């Protein structure tokens, strides 16, 4: 009799344990699905967009064919400027577009003079906009016809003086076509685009005019110089020390080889520091 009682008690206890195990309020709760919060929730700062013609524009330089170049004005007209926080990091050399977690756009068309200021001037401030904090590691812009001002009707306008062996050429170069640049991370001495809440960071559109004229301080057989037009083909077109031409006139007056070289060079002007860009021609 006692043995039956013990067995019965054990059965009751086991059953009770099973019921409690299924209905226990201490059972672990299902975890809520996790989502990656937008970087903007970390606060907001100010993002500056700057444009830089480098010391070649601010201080002048000697072209690959020996012309001492100096610039009074270098107008570039920028539109659809967009900064990105991308994941994975955007690589201009690869196919595809930036995969953006955040984008910040600059409204309007901006014509700026890369030669503004003295030889030690800072890169030109194009715009500053409020932006979510985070790591901005890609930048795109279009180079379009200026809607007004001295450079009206042209994306790129260069005005300056070239000297060689006692000869002086005062030049104005009014350059088409319209172009678009999509670039990855800035490459330079310091990283750019790291924006913390309540602070300011900048990104830079860099223009390499040594790609157009070459650089006497670089070996003649360097790809920079072998691919550059130089200034001599343009100097040959000057009359009485004056050269004022647009792209259409250059098509008529340059040799076919030099004109084609010019068109090949123009898309390579845009960089982010030393970082490369993917280029596209918008108009011819």
Structural class of the helices, strands and pairings? alpha+beta
Q: State the domain count.
A: 1
- How many helical stretches? 7
Q: What form results from the Cα inertia axes?
A: elongated
Largest sheet features: 10 strands, mixed
Q: Tell me the series of helices and strands, N- to C-terminal.
A: HEHEEEEEEEEEEEEHHHEHHEE
What is the percentage of strand-forming residues? 35-45%
* Distance, first to last CA: 106 Å
Average predicted local confidence, pLDDT: 88
Q: Which residues form runs of ≥5 with pLDDT under 50?
A: 1-40
Which radius of gyration do the C-alpha atoms yield? Answer: 30 Å
- The count of strands amounts to 16
Helix content: 10-25%
Task: Write a concise synopsis of the structure shown.
The protein is of the alpha+beta class and 284 residues long. The protein has one domain (44-281). It has helices at residues 2-23, 54-58, 210-213, 223-226, 232-235, 247-253, 256-265; strands at 44-52, 61-62, 68-86, 100-106, 110-113, 124-132, 134-135, 138-143, 156-164, 167-175, 179-183, 194-195, 200-207, 242-246, 270-271, 277-281.
């Amino acid at each position: 009799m006692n043995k039956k009682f013990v067995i019965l008690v054990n059965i009751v206890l086991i059953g009770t344990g099973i019921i409690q195990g299924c209905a226990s309020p201490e059972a672990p709760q299902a975890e809520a699905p996790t989502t990656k919060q937008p970087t903007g929730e970390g606060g907001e700062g100010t993002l500056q967009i700057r444009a830089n013609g480098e010391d070649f524009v601010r201080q002048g330089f000697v072209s690959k064919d020996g012309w001492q170049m100096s610039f009074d004005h270098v107008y570039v007209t920028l539109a659809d400027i967009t900064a990105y926080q991308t994941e994975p990091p955007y690589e201009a050399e690869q196919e595809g577009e930036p995969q953006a977690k955040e984008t910040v756009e600059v409204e309007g068309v901006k014509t700026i003079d890369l030669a503004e200021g003295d030889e030690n001037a800072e890169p030109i401030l194009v715009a500053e906009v409020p932006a979510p904090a985070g790591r901005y590691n890609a930048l795109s812009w279009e180079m379009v016809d200026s809607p007004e001002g001295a450079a009206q009707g042209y994306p790129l306008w260069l005005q300056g003086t070239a000297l060689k062996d006692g000869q002086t050429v005062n030049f104005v170069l009014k350059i088409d076509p319209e172009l678009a640049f999509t670039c990855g991370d800035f490459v330079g001495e310091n990283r750019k685009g790291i924006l913390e809440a309540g602070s300011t960071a900048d990104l830079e559109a860099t223009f390499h005019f040594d790609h157009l004229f070459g650089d006497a301080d670089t070996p003649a057989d360097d790809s920079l110089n072998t691919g550059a037009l130089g200034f001599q083909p343009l100097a040959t077109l000057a009359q009485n020390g004056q050269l004022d031409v647009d792209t259409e006139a250059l098509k008529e007056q340059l040799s076919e080889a030099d004109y084609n070289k010019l068109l090949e060079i123009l898309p390579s002007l845009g960089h982010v520091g030393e970082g490369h860009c993917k280029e596209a021609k918008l108009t011819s």
